[in-house]
Amino acid sequence: MPEFTKPYESRWQAFLLLLPTFAVLIAFLYYPGVETFRLSLQQTILLGTRKTFVGLENYVTLATSSTYHWSFAISIAFAAVVVVGTLVASLFVAYLLFQVDVGSSTYLIAAIWPYALPTAVAASVLLFLLHPSLGIITFVLESLTGTSLEWFTNGPQAFAVVAVVAIWKQLGYNIIFMVAALNNIPETLTESAKLDGVGHLKMLYRVYVPLMSPTLVFLVVMNTIYSFFQTFPLVDLMTSGGPNEATNLLIFKLYRDAFEFSNLGLASAESVVLFAIVAILMYVQLRLSESYTTYA
Amino acid sequence: MGLPLLLALIMSTQSTTEVYQITNVGIGSQGLSNYGTVLGEYNFTQYMINSVVMSVIIVVGKVTLSLFAALALVYYRFPYERAVFMFILLTLLLPVPVRIVPLFDLMARLGWGNTLMAITGPYIASATAVFLFRQHFMSIPASLVENAHLDGVGPLTFLWKVLIPMSKGMIAGVSVITFIYAWNQYLWPLIIMTDQSKQVVQVGLRFLQAASQSGLTRWGIIMAGAVIALLPPLAVLIVMHRPLLETLAIQQK
């Protein structure tokens, strides 16, 4: 709460200043949001010209559909792989950056640039570089390991490739927050640990990681939301959900149910499930950040 | 981390024949001519213009609307302030995929398909930007505000003469975050823009892949397109990384 007395009293001026934001939020966020719930209780027939109320039928369909169960399960698995992979890789880079401790912008930009990388660009570039028969990275990997990359036909490999691209794109965002967190750690701690002769890696997981935990929790939540919502271009451009549904993530399935199969009621029910996932994650984030501030 | 980008850059200079020689990782014979092909033959010039227009409208709209809203929240006394702020913040729970079917429906009923209103409208109000500006305004010393008020300055003059000059870093940061976010949009433009000439550059990459489904895929061309689609947000990040980092640091709270 502000400590000063507010200078302006005119209610209609305040109303006018808030009006554009409110108009947009109501028209394009709240109204469609509420409509999603309403549509999820309906069945559209004849290409959306007729709608009939069907109650919870769409939800029953989802609950009993093995395709949906599969999508749900691989989305959870995908989120887990992306969250863990991103955190480990970015922690490594951020720690290196912190150790080198150059105030130089060049190093910093070299580490955080994927923040500006469009997901569609990441997908196009790695689709080619990891191409089973043409990719130069594929060629090097196969020469080194002796295994063959066949991810156009091999489900688990496709899942792994898409996850790697998702992680690559998300590194910048994570490194930004981790470097900030590391820079907030009091130098006296680092000094005294150094005097005790603690090794770099031990320092990282004994001293730094616990101190960075509020940031890490925040990143777990943000990365999870990212892997559920922002990964559509990856699936769309790299695998189209295949092979054998191996990369048919919830967001891609939602797109197809809505805009390819015109199954608007079912797609809306899928949106409601996604809404529930965001709501739970945001709630977790809120509760945890509250508990940290009480200790601080 | 930068290696795939470097390889993409090299491959974007190669002819299709050179691309199909897998171990050929030298600069190709095409030089920069693939870029010309993408910008001309494949309409990327048009897509880039569309992306720039869309992103700039979203940045200007979001910053303007959010400054107004924050001004009202911090410097005006009105009933239910807390509720109004919560009403704005709660929209964080509604990312596009959560409301995509009715939103598409709404645009169709408004007759906004293929218009700038449709790709920019859903993005120009923002809980995050209002939150950040509000935080920043609240950190401005009260003495300044009182001085301004004693001189009988109206709210818009106060915003223009006092608040905006004092919030330059924050406005820059929000603008950068918004620009990068807007530029990278893919799903919503893909759905709402059915007219290919109105499409943004990210979806242009999809056309590029689809265009070469028959015969040998022109990967050199696709890499050139990918590099073009990456340059604007990358340039913005490099030039504006300071305000970006400062703003993100505040956002976490």
Overview features:
heterodimer; A: about 300 residues; mainly alpha; MetI-like fold; two-stranded antiparallel ribbon; about 75% helix; globular; B: about 250 residues; about 70% helix; cell inner membrane (chain A); transmembrane helix (chain A)
Can you give me a brief rundown of this structure?
Chain A has helices at 11-39, 57-64, 66-100, 105-112, 119-129, 136-145, 155-183, 187-195, 200-211, 213-229, 232-238, 250-259, 264-295, and strands spanning 42-45, 50-53. Chain A has 296 residues and is mainly α. In chain B, helix 1 packs across helix 14 and helix 11 packs across helix 15 (241-251).
Secondary structure elements and pairings:
The complex is a heterodimer of chains A (296) and B (253).
Chain A: H1 11-39, E1 42-45, E2 50-53, H2 57-64, H3 66-100, H4 105-112, H5 119-129, H6 136-145, H7 155-183, H8 187-195, H9 200-211, H10 213-229, H11 232-238, H12 250-259, H13 264-295
Antiparallel strand pairs in A: 1-2
Chain B: H1 3-11, H2 16-20, H3 33-39, H4 44-75, H5 81-89, H6 100-110, H7 116-120, H8 127-138, H9 142-150, H10 155-166, H11 168-183, H12 187-192, H13 201-211, H14 219-239, H15 241-251
